[in-house]
Amino acid sequence: MKFIYIIFTLICCLFYATYIYLDIHLDINIKNIEIEIFHKESTTAPPLLLSGRKRPKQGYVVHVDRLEKNCGDIKNIMTENCLKYLDNEDDYMVSFSTIKGASPPPPCNRNHPPMLFHVFWQGKITDKLALVMKSFLYSQPLECSTLYVWLDNMNDTNLNDNKYIRSLLKYSPTLIEFKSWDMVEQLSFSDVYAGWQGPEYFKNSVKISDMFRFVVLHNYGGIYIDSDVFLVRDMRPLYYANFEFAYRWSNTQQFNTAVLRLWKQSPSSKMVIRGAINNNMNFHPFNITNYLSTHNDSSREETNKLIYMLPSGLFDPLWLKQDEIQPLSILSPNLHEFTDLFNPNLTPGEISGLDPTTFDSSPLEIRNIDNFFRGIFAYHWHNQWNATIHPTSWCGVIQTAYDEFLDGKRRNLYNEYILSL
After folding, report:
1. Which one of 13, 130, 204, 241 has the fewest CB atoms closer than 10 angstroms to its CB?
2. 256 is in which domain, residue-wise?
3. Which residues in 80-195 belong to E strands, given as ranges?
């Protein structure tokens, strides 16, 4: 039996290596720098990730009813069980042709419109904005994705002088495009903004951000992500699904719009924009349900037909535990608070069976980006703007992985690597 097991293992390894070798590679011309994103093996390739994924199949999207069934009932389904389900995508990734009303996703190449992502930044650019940008490059299919980075002070910003994003400028404008946010210009796109109140209303950055996401998605379409969110998995199966979405605010019946997908000039975005304009320009997430309601007793089932409220586990796996809705949840890693992402030391209970007080090695021996909340599509780290990114913290481990990938020294989650020529 032992001999048979060894032979079987060797056959599996040979099959996996053959799959990697036969897969294609992609050439992307970025200004005068040629970047090649490889899937196949070569003598100079970084080591394979045995825990790596395959990119979603062309034409496959998420089946939202199955996501809801396995992640939505937070009273009976622990977040860790939701993540285990999400990590094995065979059940909920289905061909668009099996879903009523779904359109065929376009092929992933530069001959078709790309997935469009938006992030908004106010003030001086820091390492936190760079983290979002790197997560996009690390996780998304670059042959069919573009990130718009909207800056509120574009005219006063010398991007080449900024140490955090200087190395990322070679990906602009093909993959990352810096755009100037002009409120008056954007609110002049269509009559949907008639009656909007002037810039003097927006006296704090949160109100501007709450408004920005609905305006930019109405004008351009795509996915908006807060600047305290990093992307983890290929978003195509969500992007091309037949519904718009945000996700649930902890255990409430309100939306969180830190991740928000809207179609260009959709009826849903129009309802929210008109509702906010008629309510003193209030775009706070807790008002979105009201703006989507057609009567006083509109149910979640009804508003889901406009903007679907996805379970928080897809983007915010720690929220229910931090809010003590699921205090006994045992996650992987088993963090307890949002601040733990930036903790350079191991936290109690973080790794099952490991006592941090007796562990005398570096956390880098334990922490690995490939084991960070497997199954999530993105991670929302909730406003830790002034936190230092220590190399041994989870955030530091993730940032190092991004940097090594962009330097051609490691593979991403999909066993791809970049070769800069």
Report:
1. 204
2. 60-314
3. 93-95, 115-121, 145-151, 176-180
